[in-house]
Design brief:
alpha/beta, Rossmann fold
Amino acid sequence: MNTILVVEDGLTDREIINGYLKQAGYYVINAIDADETKEKLSQNKPDLIFLDVILPGKSGFEICRELKDNPTTSQIPIIFCSTKNSDVDKMWGTMLGADAYLAKPIQKEALMDVIKQLSH
């Protein structure tokens, strides 16, 4: 596992996540909305996707459902990263096929632990 797609429209959060991932040796691709996500996925096959819930246009929940319904992308693990971190939000994420759910602000240790769990 070495290529990670980060779908995050917030510059600060994107830079924090990118920094943690790059320090850990991952190659990071970025997208800020559904259209850019689709474009990046047509060019790359990431090993993992970090997905914000609140995005311009389609929500992360909608993007997750589309990715999990598509045979080309259904096997890619998805981790939600969001300020929306109630039990209901986490339940929705799981129901839509997400593999993990991290609350913002993202902690480096939690991020690395989830990646380690999903790479086994």
